[in-house]
Amino acid sequence: MSQTDRQDNISQLLNRLRMRQVALILAIDEQRTLRGAANRLGLTQPAATKMLHDLESTLGLTLFDRVGRGLVLNAAGECVTRYFRSFRGGMEALNRELAEFRRGGGGRLAIGGIMAASPERLARALLALRKEWPMLAMEVVVDTSDRLLEKLREGMLEIVVGRTTGEDDDEYLFRPLDDEALSVVVANDHPLARARSIAFNELLSYDWVVQPHGSPMRTLIDQEFRDHRAPLPRDLIETGSILTSMDLVRHSDMIAVLPHTIARDNEAHGFLRILPYRFGRTLDAYGSLVRRDRPLSRPAQQFLALLHG
User: Fold this and answer.
1) Class of the domain covering 3-73
2) CATH 3.40.190.290 is held by the domain 182-274
3) pTM of the predicted model, to two decimals?
């Protein structure tokens, strides 16, 4: 298919697609019934049925399978819904940015970052950007890479400073920034705090604080236990907050894994102790991630230049 043919097909789809149809698909996905979706949108059920049939006719595919009285997305429906969620997220981001302009500001930039990313590098880029865009509203969301990428996918963030997760990586443009070593940390008065060398089996006598499933750091921790053919402790605590992890460690005999730069700074201030243990595997490099299918605002482009400069 030539580029002209593809553009004609896209134009035809855009001409026939209606915003109300987008809202209907997302409502069905949330409500799981056509009746519930119709009520959510203030439609009669016959009107919602016709709207769904019109959309499926436009796409040339059915999007849902009936299961009992409910509707379940099929493979085509999952694909369409994923793109519609992204579209809704983009519209929400547009609405927030326009609201800043209405208030007399200079737009809005929302960035996501993992705690492992160098705080100094991120702060320098933000401060330099603020000099160029003094009226720009900026938000920085800190979380694990998998959660940040979900927000990026849905349009809540424009840039993520984190790691790829292996899922839908082709949706993003990734530019590496740096590698990040990990450190195993404990409280200053922990029984292992003064050890000069530690074997993995010695760590199994204590409870752990770990990141939630899906984050790259948690994947590496799980793999370390598998490599030693050991199960994860039953009484572990899961949290994506590094501050919470540090507080739990400082007031108990629990063990946590932190990015080395953060662990090093906290050890230097006397808040915790880094154990002489090294993981058998390392994390992939972290860097900037943006959507390939979504144009960047001028502040976002400048922020990336400052971040990688």
Assistant:
1) mainly alpha
2) yes
3) 0.60
What are the CA-CA distances from residue 303 to residues 28, 67, 285, 296 (Å)?
38, 48, 19, 10
State the residue for tokens 């209405």: 102
CATH homologous superfamily of 85-179+285-308 equals Periplasmic binding protein-like II (3.40.190.10)
The helix (H) or strand (E) run that includes residue 102 is helix 75-102
Q: Which residues, at least 6 apart from 80, have a Cβ–Cβ distance to it below 8 Å? A: 25, 59, 63
Greatest CA separation for the chain? 73
pLDDT tens digits along 65-111: 888 777 888 998 888 888 888 777 777 767 766 776 666 556 789 99
Q: Is 160 helix (H, G, I), strand (E, B) or coil?
A: strand
Domain boundaries, the chain: 3-73, 85-179+285-308, 182-274
| 85-179+285-308 and 182-274 share one fold | yes
164, 185, 181: which is closest to 252 by C-alpha?
A: 185
In sequence order, which ranges of 228-297 are alpha helices (DSSP H)?
242-250, 260-268
Burial track 50-82 (b if 16+ CB lie within 10 A, e otherwise): ebbeebbeebeeebbeeeeeebebeeebeebbb
Instruction: Please write the tens of the pLDDT for every residue from 104-128.
Output: 556 789 999 987 666 778 889 999 9
